[in-house]
Each structure stands twice: as C-alpha cells, then as structure tokens.
Amino acid sequence: MSRGKKKQTLLDSDLPIKTIDEEEGLIPFFLIDDTHGVYAAQFSYQIVELQMKNRTVKSSDNKPEYIERYPCWSFLGDVGTFESAIDFYLSNKERELNARQVKNKDYKKLIETQYEIREIMQKAFDLKGQNADVLSFSELIDYKARMMKQIKDLNEQKKVVEQELNSLMEFIKDKRRIIVQNTEPKKHRVKLED
Prior knowledge:
2 domains, 6-stranded mixed sheet
C-alpha cells in the first residue's frame, strides 16, 4: 500500500515569503495571552486565537509572485458572558498543559501547571499590562456604579433623617405649647359677693 506524495504547502514552494504585521479576522478587545483573546460579538463573546496564515499574491498576468504570511484571529469558541469566556480559556489551557503529563504521578508538575495558568491570568488582568485601557475603563464603570449606589443609599438616609427631624420638630412644638400654657398667668376668678 503506497502512501502517496506528501502534500505540498505554500511554505514548501520556491516563492519568496513576505511577512506583514497587519492583523485580520476577529480582532479581540481583551488579550488573555499572546495568542488568545476575547472578541465581543453582537450578542455574545467569542474566544479567538492568533494564527499565522499564508496566501499567494499574484501578478497582473495571474502568475504567483510571492507568498504573504499574515496574522489572523480565528474563532475558537462561542460563549455567553465575559466570565464564561475566561472559564473556557482556562479549561482549554489546563487541558492543553495537562496533556503533556500523560499518566504522570508527580503532583508537583500539576501544581506547576496551576501556577503557570495563574501567572497568565495575572498578566492578563494587570492594570499596567496589555489590557490597561480596557481594565481602567471597566474600573471607572465599577467606580461609577459604586458611587451611584452610595448616592442612592445617602438619599434614602436623607429621607429617614428628614422624617425623624420632622417628628422631632413636632415633639418640640408640642412641648413648647405645654411649657407656654404652664407659664401663662392664671386668671383668678374672684367670686363677687352678692
């Protein structure tokens, strides 16, 4: 049984290869690591992966001139929320890292895998890292939400204080009325003799 010829790829050809830096595809708004990110679709989030792709550039007479190599963000998985996108990435990354240790009984390597994943996530959520603008924007949104909640709580406290103040003022008015009535000179009625 013959195996046949090995399939020739674009990189195996004799054409020169030019690499460009312009990214194509589903460009993510949040980078998890160098090759994975989160893309915001219309109604969900998607995990995307950076891959290097090739295409042939042809001349005007339809003959191949060179091979263009470019980075392209490709769809990896569809999820509903940002949190589930991170969970999806973590489970895939853990599976990928644990696949290296087939039937390994050394628990230190499993712990190292967990530390490696933790470091990736710390880099992704570092306020001075690659996602600084997204994280600072989300931090501002969180800060605004906290301030709005505090304002709402203060308005509720203000209403309670106003009610207590009104009841206190009524109480003071009531006590003043009693004091004024007790301090007024009493009219002595003298019985006239008949």
